[in-house]
Design goal:
- The chain is α/β, with parallel strands linked by helices and 293 residues long.
- The protein folds into 2 domains: 4-21 and 253-292, ATP synthase, gamma subunit, helix hairpin domain (Helix Hairpins), CATH 1.10.287; 32-251, Pyruvate Kinase, Chain: A, domain 1.
- 61% of the residues lie in helices and 13% in strands.
- The protein has 6 helices and 5 strands.
- It has a 5-stranded mixed sheet, with helices on both faces.
């Protein structure tokens, strides 16, 4: 049974941990509001670009005129998987859920005789994948030193992906990230960006269907727009990840704070019982000694 001094030290230690987790929860809550606003503001831009590209693709009756980024290489043998995670932990299952989905998909590709290549964005993704998939990782990127991720960071990653595609390094590219729904729920996503997999995003019922007239020709516009769309989708994933990370961290630190409080209560009860038992024992010894005299 632990001594009173041991129980005192443990209670003090847990209380210190509780203060840290409470502070981290408050910081995450402050960051979450801004990250959530950025993610929500980025969605309309991404959705509108998807719809414009969809309208442009309707004019292509034959794939021979379509850009390669739109229709792909014509092969289906090599997949580039871009796993986007955080550079920091203590955020619940945020990183694990992304990697879990990525591992499941990559195992499916390998079991079907496909080849895979991996780019990790965020050190936590690399840490979780290196044990099983290290030989497939061709690049690892960390944005730990960045205070705020900008569109330029997404554009650099997008440019690198396009370069690899133009060198025939892969046939299809899929990005993995968490889609922010609310503080408690973040949904892992696997989104194909090469060849462009465009689905019309539903507009509000009161909005009229949009029609576009393009100048110059559609193929020229797509040649310029498709690489930008890749960067846009990557930046959207960054924004969704940022909000998801802070939401998951806030929830995890809230749980940790409450668990620490419960542990302090239990330890305090044990301390009081041990102290009471010690006092009772001393009284019995005193009374027994007095009676013997």
């Amino acid at each position: 049974m632990p001594s009173l001094d041991d129980l005192k030290k443990r209670i003090k230690s847990v209380k210190s941990t509780q203060k840290i987790t409470k502070a981290m929860k408050m910081v995450a809550a402050a960051k979450l509001k801004k990250a959530q606003e950025s993610a929500e503001k980025g969605r309309p831009y991404s959705d509108k670009m998807q719809n414009i590209i969809l309208n442009l693709t309707k004019s292509f009756k034959e794939n021979s005129n379509a850009p390669k980024l739109l229709i792909g290489s014509g092969e289906d043998s090599t997949y580039l998987c871009v796993i986007m995670t955080a550079d920091r932990g203590l955020c619940g299952g945020f990183n694990t859920n992304i990697c879990k989905l990525a591992k499941k998909k990559m195992r499916e590709f390998l079991s079907n005789g496909k080849k895979i290549k991996i780019i990790t964005v965020g050190s936590k993704g690399y840490d979780q994948l290196k044990k099983e998939f290290k030989k497939f990782i061709i690049e690892k990127k960390s944005l730990k030193d960045k205070k705020k991720i900008s569109f330029d960071d997404a554009a650099l990653i997008g440019k690198r992906i396009v370069e690899l595609f133009e060198k025939n390094e892969f046939d299809k590219c899929i990005i993995f990230y968490n889609n922010f729904k609310n503080v408690i729920t973040q949904i892992p996503q696997a989104q194909q960006i090469i060849p462009a997999k465009i689905d019309r995003v539903e507009t509000k019922s009161e909005e009229k269907e949009e029609f576009y007239e393009f100048e110059p020709e559609e193929d020229e516009i797509l040649e310029d727009l498709l690489p930008k769309n890749i960067s846009t989708q990557i930046f959207k994933a960054f924004l969704e990840n940022s909000a998801s990370e802070q939401g998951s961290r806030m929830t995890a630190m809230d749980n940790a704070t409450r668990n620490a409080g419960d542990l302090v209560d239990k330890l305090t009860i044990n301390y009081n019982r041990s102290r009471q038992a010690s006092i009772t024992k001393e009284l019995i010894e005193i009374i027994s000694g007095a009676e013997s005299l």
